[in-house]
Design goal:
By secondary structure, the protein is α/β, with parallel strands linked by helices. It has one domain: Rossmann fold. The chain is 40% helix and 14% strand. It has a seven-stranded parallel sheet, sandwiched between helices. β2, α2 and β3 form a beta-alpha-beta unit. It binds NADP nicotinamide-adenine-dinucleotide phosphate. The site of NADP nicotinamide-adenine-dinucleotide phosphate has 28 residues, from α1.
Length: 236
């Protein structure tokens, strides 16, 4: 199967590439600055034709279109919208609005640019799947004073951007159901990456093993849903 993924330079995106190559899949990997993505380029040495690395900035429409064009006519079975930023977590009154716009552009609008540009290739694929990495912090239900993490509230831009992404995913699930598009949101949990920090409880390899299982098992009947990396349905 052929996968396309954004944010493949490090963290969860890099681990997706590693595990997909290990199981024999082909990956079109997008990295913001490919020549700095040393761990990704190292994988290309053994992968040969099964890994192609492309420049990709999900904040830039021309870059996303160039990414789609450089894939060519090859069908994409699964698009993984993984790239994301956490931004600044300042309290209300000290919000940095430029940073907020950057987070919204990257996390909410970026995946829509990707889905829009790659949709024709995905609809030609065997499985027709587009999945988006989101977070439990985008949940409205869980963002209460009694929030399960004990840190509900705060992180305005990050929470807002992922909540907007969640609505975008639901909309594409409705609009393209008849064309057979299967789309879903994936919450990776709190993971040991640059974003998640070393304090996170979940190793990146176990997170991605779980996410791949969830992606493999997605069907049209479950399209439009929100799952964690163990396949459990999340609250909106
Ligand atoms: N780690 C967690 O605990 C956690 C929890 C919930 C959700 N998530 C979500 O999971 C996804 C991956 O997170 P992670 O932990 O792997 O984060 P990470 O370690 O910080 O890596 C983020 C990746 O996104 C890329 N990226 C950022 N802005 C981009 C842009 N404009 N265009 C293209 N690529 C861009 C980065 O590229 P560069 O290397 O070029 O900067 C990097 O490859 C994100 O969507 C995040 O919100 C993570």
């Amino acid at each position: 199967m052929r996968y396309a993924i954004s944010g493949a330079s490090r963290g969860i995106g890099l681990e997706f590439v590693r595990q997909l190559l290990a199981r024999g899949d082909t990956v079109e990997a997008g990295a913001r600055v490919p020549w700095e993505a040393r761990q990704l380029t190292a994988l290309a040495r053994d992968a040969g034709e099964r890994l192609r690395i492309h420049a990709l900035d999900v904040k830039n429409t021309a870059s996303v279109r160039a990414f789609a064009a450089s894939i060519g006519e090859a069908p994409i079975d699964v698009l993984i919208n993984n790239a994301g930023v956490s931004g600044k977590w300042n309290p209300l009154g000290e919000l940095d609005f430029e940073d907020m716009a950057h987070v919204m552009e990257t996390n909410a609008i970026g995946p829509m640019r990707m889905a829009s540009a790659l949709l024709p290739l995905v609809l030609k694929g065997n499985t027709r799947k587009i999945v988006h990495l989101t977070t439990r912090m985008g949940s409205l239900t869980e963002n209460t004073p009694a929030g399960v993490y004990g840190f509900a509230g705060g992180a305005y831009a990050y929470r807002m951007s992922k909540a907007a992404l969640n609505q975008g995913m639901r909309t594409m699930a409705v609009d393209f159901r008849e064309k057979g598009l299967i789309t879903a949101l994936l919450n990776p949990g709190w993971v040991q990456t640059d974003m998640g920090s070393k304090m996170a409880p979940t190793r990146v390899d176990e997170c991605v093993q779980g996410l791949l299982r969830v992606i493999d098992e997605l069907t049209l009947a479950r399209s439009g849903c929100f799952f964690d990396f163990q396949g459990k349905e999340m609250l909106w």
